[in-house]
Design goal:
The chain has 11 helices and 2 strands. The protein has 270 residues and is mainly alpha-helical. A two-stranded antiparallel sheet has the order 1-2.
């Protein structure tokens, strides 16, 4: 595999030019999603740069979610829906509940539209892939395994079946930002089985080419998710506040005991 251009980079703009050249190969499709990029040795030869400069550029691309380094395998191009998800996640982490609610609302609106589009556009092969994610989730639940990946795969396949790449990538980006909360939701005892049942209902509506039912069922499913995550965040916030209050109370008690001991000592000394 070769770069789109193999002209050595001018050393006066080495760092910036290396980064830009590598990004060009991803954006223009020279390196496709899921594809392994050339080794560092080959890239250094093609670009005419030192390995340290190349590694800095590759690391920057990993930080913005364009590349993924896998130990023992190499470096691979991430799906476009992953681009910029990491810095966005860093920006989002620790923000207030209103922004979390906005993300969940946006996700529900997008995925309802995607489900409706999938009902009218899905190919037989795409319907089969959606069904396979349901079987995978059934297997995970039966084996008491984590269902996050099979749950996410269902929504990804529905998005792909909608044949609107912009909308599907936007929804996938939101799912990535919400992944931690989705994981917490799926750890609640009854929820995996409930989510599986909702997936079955949505799949049946999509397979039956019922656009309105597909939209409504997906909206209802994600509204339930929003309610659960809202309850989780409230519970976690309440627990944190309670712990802080207890810590202050303990600290206050310790301080009072210290003052009492000091006062007692002074009385004895007099």
């Amino acid at each position: 595999m070769k770069l789109s251009r193999t002209v050595p980079i001018e050393r006066t703009t080495l760092s910036a030019a290396t980064f830009e050249r590598l990004i060009t190969n991803v954006v223009h499709g020279t390196w496709k999603a899921g594809q392994q990029i050339p080794t560092e040795r080959i890239l250094c030869q093609q670009l005419g740069i030192a390995r340290n400069s190349l590694r800095e550029a590759l690391k920057a691309m990993e930080l913005i979610g364009m590349l993924e380094s896998r130990v023992g395998e190499g470096t691979f191009v991430c799906p476009r829906s992953e681009f910029l998800s990491r810095p966005l996640l860093w920006a989002f982490t620790g923000t207030d509940h209103a922004e979390l609610a906005d993300l969940m609302e946006a996700r529900a609106l997008m995925e309802a539209d995607l489900a409706g589009l999938a009902a009218s556009r899905a190919t037989p092969e795409e319907l089969k892939r959606i069904e396979d994610t349901i079987h995978a989730m059934e297997h995970d639940i039966a084996g008491s395994e984590a269902v996050l990946e099979s749950d996410m795969a269902f929504h990804l396949c529905v998005g792909q079946a909608a044949h609107n790449e912009v909308l599907a990538n936007a929804a996938q980006l939101l799912r990535n930002l919400l992944k931690y909360w989705i994981h917490l939701k799926l750890m609640i005892g009854r929820i995996p089985a409930q989510a599986l049942e909702r997936h079955r209902e949505i799949y049946q509506a999509i397979r039956g080419r019922n656009v309105q039912a597909s939209r409504a069922l997906m909206q209802e499913h994600l509204n339930e998710t929003t309610t659960l995550i809202t309850q989780l965040t409230a519970s976690m916030t309440g627990s944190l506040q309670s712990n802080e209050k207890n810590l202050r109370a303990v600290t206050g008690s310790d301080r009072r005991r210290t003052l009492a001991r000091t006062a007692s000592k002074k009385v004895k000394d007099t």
